[in-house]
Amino acid sequence: MFTGIIEELGEVSSLEPLRDAARLAIRGKAVTADAKHGDSIAVNGVCLTVVDVGGEVFTADVMKETLDRSSLGALRPGSPVNLERAVRADARLGGHIVQGHVDGTGVLLSREPAEHWEVVRISLPAELNRYVVEKGSIAVDGVSLTVASVDAEAFSVSLIPTTLELTTLGAKRPGDPVNLETDVIAKHVEKLVGAYGPGGRP
């Protein structure tokens, strides 16, 4: 599990295409400090399992479903990436519950600079719309954000200077894809309510 509080901005060292997957090598000084085989690290919001660690670089295998559902397949050597290690059970939950299971991708539509922040509007796939509510939480490229507004086609978030400086969202431009993970609690509630129905019985 993750919190959506990015630990560092890493960099893609290499992306090796395989027959039905890819092997990704990422450079990140902080996340590799105590990383070992089998650990989980979120890369742009996607939970990946560490295969190997060498110096400040770790490698992970990315399966086809992950490539299809996320923007990881578009990464190239030198691409910046948001990195977060799995949260410890005794740590503060500074953001919200993030699984690292991306639901789909959106496209950055616009940026509106203000004096101390930026309002960013992002397209929202129709099948995810019901899980996104005003003042609720959403992970965008692994960053825990509060939804400022939402309509049938898109949602907006406000990015503070720290987020603009320390994550990939500061450099994203209109047309760029982003990974989206909606609130897992909303999905569980929907399933439970649907299972029991209006009469309270399954």
TrEMBL record:
Catalytic activity: 2 6,7-dimethyl-8-(1-D-ribityl)lumazine + H(+) = 5-amino-6-(D-ribitylamino)uracil + riboflavin
Protein known as: Riboflavin synthase
Record-level Gene Ontology MF annotations: riboflavin synthase activity
Function according to Swiss-Prot or TrEMBL: Catalyzes the dismutation of two molecules of 6,7-dimethyl-8-ribityllumazine, resulting in the formation of riboflavin and 5-amino-6-(D-ribitylamino)uracil.
Pathway: Cofactor biosynthesis; riboflavin biosynthesis; riboflavin from 2-hydroxy-3-oxobutyl phosphate and 5-amino-6-(D-ribitylamino)uracil: step 2/2
InterPro entries xref list: ATP_synth_asu-like_sf (IPR023366), Lumazine-bd (IPR001783), Lumazine-bd_dom (IPR026017), Riboflavin_synthase-like_b-brl (IPR017938)
Taxonomic superkingdom: Bacteria
Keywords in alphabetical order: Repeat, Riboflavin biosynthesis, Transferase
Gene3D superfamilies linked to this entry: 2.40.30.20
SUPFAM superfamilies xrefs: Riboflavin synthase domain-like (SSF63380)
EC numbers for this chain: 2.5.1.9
Segments forming domain Lumazine-binding: 1-96, 97-193
Residue ranges of Lumazine-binding repeats: 1-96, 97-193
Biological processes, Gene Ontology terms: riboflavin biosynthetic process
Assembly with partners or alone: Homotrimer.
